[in-house]
Design a protein that fits this description.
heterohexamer; A: alpha+beta; Alpha-Beta Plaits; four-stranded antiparallel β-sheet; two-stranded antiparallel sheet; 41% strand; B: mainly alpha; Ammonium transporter fold; 3 strands; binds adenosine-5'-diphosphate
Chain lengths: 113, 453, 453, 453, 113, 113
């Protein structure tokens, strides 16, 4: 199996969720993260002290799927999350050796179906 | 207290002396003696002024809790800045335009720069306490009124334009309305003359801001992204509600301009209406959605406070129960209009202040009684008509003037931040700050997300 | 103010007559003049009423900071809703049952719906200020008392049942106790008659709520999951503490029913006891755990305020230092009882209000002095006995009645939310809201976790 | 109040005598009558005392929002603990040292343990209200003054040493300064005698704390890690600002020691200066950084309040506009000194209170007028010189004494926590608590990060 | 080595920690996340506006162990985290190529011992 | 490609960021996490109830790089994040099968360049 790990803009999460729903995918895990990259940050002032914030708010979406579905899923997420501006994010595909469903103890593809 | 009579008696005869002694000195002479300060009235007016000032930070919290975290500072600042802008204007010109002798529609310039507004009582407005206390008390009202509008235009209006807007609005909309309703020096204000009752600002404060809010919202257009615009911090909204309630005792109670039975009455009905309206909102919601919400309580409390405001010096406790019970279902439904009609009144300023204020103004005509306040009126169709006139004038005048001011600002300075700035949030884009700089429990508390230069 | 001398001279010669005339007309007639409003007393009573009202939101914050984030709104609402429910009941029936002429155990129905409770002074309760000011001042006490109980039953009691509970409790437990202690119109209240001293509510407010809290906690049972029930927001608890302290000046200072030396004295001893108790709690903790905590400061301050409450109009500054110093170690240890005895008093309402209130009531008997308040008593074994009687009656009556009310509600409506709802949190399950809808610093502030429909 | 007229008529005829008789009995006798309590003045002094007490929690919030989350409770506690420590000391010895008859430099011991400080008026300080009200009002000032210092030494000073520090400082620095400026019983205080004007504490409160803050900061050294020391919660700072502003009406308004025109005047100029200074700070920042910040507003408001404090009872509204406009650019630039000179005044106590207080003290000499307060002075070079003397004495005395106290504590108890404790945060290391125990929205609200034992 | 990545209910964290302690495992990393799956969400109302929240609070526990220990560990976690109701969560086993202990620079199995 | 996943002390993030900048690396994702291990926790008291907090605040830094750069990068991070005291953290190297840049749809090494 593959973990599709997408780093997207927070405001694109709703669109990604819709795209996933269209694909019939329900299971996912979402984390609030901060990202740096080409996108430029912001300057803040506090009583004259200047701070540059270059770690910007992003959302990480993780979805484990069967190997064969991973690439299509990644493509779909990319499309849904795209604005075309720098900072849209990345998608990583990471191999997963095994999956267990806690509730039932089931392992393998069935555990994520 | 006893100085006046003693001083004046030294030259008179026994007889007039007796008469003079029996009531007060100026009854005898021709020239009115200087009015005397009553320490209790002064204490209450100063306390009330402080309470009303506190309402603006309270409003900031009430509103602030309802916006998204990325806009929290901008929301707070839109209230706080009114404390500065309106104060400076009021001292220079606003108080004079609102309260000095002038025409039925606007005050004159005799009190410009507070000239002649001193520490002695002033017969018309401050018979028993320093004139400046009246000035500062009224200033607190002038501050909060434009700040009320900020809830409607939240999360998208440019801060610079907003500052200019409230400055102009305060002079062009607020001071004439205040004069029409409360101007009594020399020529009475037009609505005061007609007998329109507005004890503490149903028309002047709530209708004017509520209607102007609606106009601005239409000029501004909707926010770009409202897919999730849930309140980021409802406890903050509830703190604000508690402080507003507390401050409103000064808002309505102080409007008696004395520490007397009328002040107590206004205090009591204010409390009852707030309590009842909060309860009735919660009940309506419980029925409609099966859950009583904290935001519903807060909304109801404020709606009740708004609605009782014009009535507070003219109605008794039973009327307060009625006003409280009625206003919440009305505002609850008024809020639904926005999804139907498609305007984006972010925090429902029109639905609560515009509608609640109008309702309160009208109900005053149906519930007022001279038994509470002999200078008021008894409920009657006529009085209802007068109240409707007052509300109508406030609605019409605010709507037209705000439309003009807003339109001019739209083509000159621009009303909205850019779409990108809106998405990033107004705190960062407009103020270069973050409301909450740190994520995490603070147990080791280091913010991972910034670097100093 | 000037009545005393006038009364003494009515039988004197022409000279005296002239003098009589010189102050006010009604002195001449035979009928007793209507009492006159003193603006200073009125200002202080209205200010005090506002301060006591503020204590309920303050309590909400004090409690709210201590619960888990998933229950914050429910915790706040359990205080706020008391402002609504108790107000409506008080206006309709509660004030009359507590203060109108009746039996030694409960007031009559003559002031039902506030009939006859007007804007003039009332000889027994409000000699120099509007009767309605007394009514609303006492209402604020009636509001906060049941709200105090909410800390004990936190994080598990059903909101609907809670609302019904405080409504019944307010009428069945609070009003009779208030009448027994403070009822003075016509037939005196039973405990007032006995000479029990309770200046601002040690028995009526703190013992009654503290004991009822314990009873409810036993009826409710423990929370399901307390593996980590650390306070979610202690700064919120400290804001609440600051506002409670501030409001308590009205609670105790206003209980003088005048703006005079006694009011100042109550104000001063209230402050001293709070300060001393906060310090002594911090010291006890510093010794016991090597660390002085902020929650300890807050707990001590409130314990001190509770303990001084019954004594505040009868004791001097040295007594205040003693009460403050003693109450904290006592409450600190009382709180430990709960782990020993196994009841789950979430926020230690019994340990702080029940125990602190009882201690204060008893210490009043040992520290009171007529030098402070001539209508009080001097410390004595007898007075201590009377105080013990008062405390005993409050304990017994509250315990029994609360047990009955709670038991009936348990079998009818049910006291607890389901286990699942408890784990999910009462904000979501009972109110359909989240206290803090967003995670993150708000820098770009978009909440990732919801969708609008 | 009745003394003046009575004195003037002692030579008149029978008729006048009758009139005199008519007012109060004691006028007849030869012994001077006991002073009489004025309920309005008492109400205002008690209200003001409550307002000033509230300023300490408000300060805690103002400061607390600016530190990192890991130090929030420590920051709050450093204000709150002053409420306890200073109160106990004040009651025992502080009030006597500050206000009892003594030398020009320090008061005597006649009011030790509040002996003789009763519920009747006191001619020198509390002519028309209970002496204890003056005592408690002044206590509130004594509390907040050392708490102000805590902002400078934030995020690194040991809590135990801090407690000892403020205890000593309160007696050794505050009480003599208060006596020199405000001591009027018998021998006048040295600066009072010279005619130095400090209506509500520019020198006694702000210069003393601001200078002491700077000295302590130098003794302490810099924080270890300031790579990201952004405010963790600016809305908290803004709540604090709002409450400070509100409380400051009592701070300055109450300093009139009466509910009269002067109180109103002080109230009004306080508001105007705060509003103007907030605006001028925002404008300066807008120009300098292109963005008006919320923290800038808060800083300006406090700077304005600080600067008007000494002047508030001696200047008019135009002067208030000037003071407000001037103080912000000055403090804004003073803050920049710290990066230039390299001291780590965490929350700019020196820059705002030290500099703002000095500026206010000096400007008082240039703007004061007897038209506002006949017991004050008219602006003059001489008066400016006297003001400079007052400021100089406060600066010199505070600096030297704080240096001595701080140095002794440094070698005995130690001033700083360990570096590890500083990195972990003072909440955990000094208090064994976390300000915010939970991460997450609380929707299911379980804190993942702890276990109970 | 293998990273055992478990998504569990927040209120089960204490039980999982105990289970790990029983196995002698001390090292772990915990993150607050949100999860969607079969478990149904909640409806919220704000002045009549309805929101459905279907990303529910979960906790992610990550533990890197030697390959041979991974499966047993996963089983133990599953048992400790189980309630039997929908929403109990998943466990993913993800291959780790290398481990370094920052303090010492040690690499390999020793770095996580 | 490899995901270098470093768990570090929060106060070391600035140093790590500098080290990355020196290597010319701009892209990274940062998450606030809690970690347990050998480092000892803290005791808290709330009205006498004692809590031991042994999940301490850490920061997770994730950087996806080409296989050949991973080890050097890990070493550099380790050096920057080191204090020498227990609790410095761990670095895990996790294989990544594929990378997509959302903005452009680019895949492979180019997507993270
Ligand atoms: N090498 C990387 N490793 C891990 N995360 C990365 C990497 N490069 C970028 N990211 C993540 O992707 C986000 C967007 O990257 P950025 O370079 O700003 O824009 P874009 O992906 O459009 O070129 C970053 O904020 C960060 O979270
Ligand atoms: N395909 C998936 N990829 C990643 N995380 C998943 C996936 N499916 C489920 N999860 C995570 O597991 C949690 C529980 O899943 P859910 O389907 O609700 O219950 P169960 O695991 O009991 O069947 C989700 O909240 C989510 O965090
Ligand atoms: N086996 C592990 N799996 C995942 N994370 C771990 C593991 N061991 C340690 N960690 C992480 O590394 C951090 C530091 O570990 P610790 O044992 O305290 O110190 P050190 O790495 O210096 O020996 C922990 O807080 C945790 O986040």
């Amino acid at each position: 199996m593959i973990k599709v790990e997408a780093l997207i803009r927070p405001q694109k999460l709703e669109d990604v969720k819709s795209a996933l729903a269209d694909l019939g995918i329900k299971g996912m895990t979402v984390t609030e993260v901060r990202g740096a990259g080409k996108q430029k940050g912001y300057t803040q002032h506090y009583r004259g002290a200047e701070y540059t914030v270059n770690l910007l708010q992003k959302v990480k979406v993780e979805i484990v799927v069967k190997d064969e579905d991973a690439h299509a899923l990644a493509k779909a997420i990319a499309e849904a999350a795209r604005t075309g501006e720098v900072g849209d994010g990345k998608i990583f595909l990471i191999p997963v050796a095994e999956v267990i469903r806690i509730r039932t103890g089931e392992e393998g593809d069935i555990a994520i179906s | 207290m006893t100085k006046q009579p003693l001083r004046t008696i030294t030259t008179t005869t026994l007889v007039s002396l007796l008469a003079a002694l029996s009531v007060n000195a100026y009854a005898q002479g021709s020239a009115p003696p200087p009015a005397k300060i009553d320490t209790g009235d002064t204490a209450w007016m100063l306390t009330s002024s402080a309470l009303v000032l506190l309402m603006t930070p309270a409003l900031a919290l009430f509103y602030g809790g309802m916006v998204r975290a990325k806009n929290i500072l901008n929301m707070l600042m839109k209230s706080f800045i009114a404390m500065s802008v309106v104060t400076v204007l009021w001292v220079i010109v606003g108080y004079s335009l609102a309260f000095a002798q002038g025409t039925p529609f606007i005050g004159g310039l005799s009190w410009l720069g507070l000239k002649g507004v001193g520490l002695d009582p002033q017969a018309t407005y401050a018979a028993t306490f320093p004139h400046q206390a009246h000035m500062v008390y009224q200033l607190m009202f002038a501050i909060i009124t434009p700040a009320l509008i900020s809830g409607a235009i939240a999360e998208r209006m440019k801060f610079s334009t907003y500052v200019v807007f409230i400055a102009i609005w305060s002079i062009v909309v607020y001071t004439p309305l205040a004069h029409m309703v409360w101007g009594l020096e020399g020529t009475k204000g037009f609505l005061a003359e007609k007998g329109a009752l507005d004890f503490a600002g149903g028309t002047v404060v709530h209708i004017s801001s509520g209607i102007s809010a609606l106009v601005m919202v239409i000029l501004l257009g909707k926010r770009k992204d409202t897919s999730d615009s849930r309140p980021h911090n409802l406890p903050m909204t509830l703190i604000g509600t508690g402080l507003l309630w507390f401050g409103w005792f000064g808002f309505n109670g102080g409007s008696a301009s004395a520490s007397n039975g009328l002040a107590a009455s206004a205090f009591v009905v204010t409390h009852i209406a707030a309590a009842t309206a909060a309860l009735s909102w919660v009940i309506v919601e419980w029925i409609a959605y099966k859950k009583p919400t904290a935001l519903g309580f807060a909304s109801g409390a404020v709606a009740g406070l708004v609605a009782i405001t014009p009535a507070s010096g003219y109605v008794g406790t039973t009327a307060a129960l009625i006003i409280g019970a009625v206003v919440s279902p009305v505002c609850f439904n008024a809020i639904k209009l926005k999804s139907k009609l498609g305007y984006d009144d972010t925090l429902d300023v029109f639905g609560v202040h515009g509608v609640g204020g109008t309702l309160g103004a009208l109900l005053t005509g149906l519930l007022c009684s001279k038994a509470i306040n002999s200078t008021g009126a008894d409920a009657s169709a006529t009085q209802f008509g007068i109240q409707a006139l007052g509300a109508g004038v406030a609605i019409g005048y605010s709507a037209i003037m705000t439309f003009i001011i807003g339109s001019v600002l739209k083509v000159t300075m621009g009303l909205r931040v850019t779409e990108e700035d809106e998405i990033v949030g107004l705190d960062l884009s407009e103020h270069g700050e973050a409301g909450y700089a740190e994520v995490g429990s603070g147990e080791e508390g280091h913010s991972a997300f910034g670097g100093v230069h």
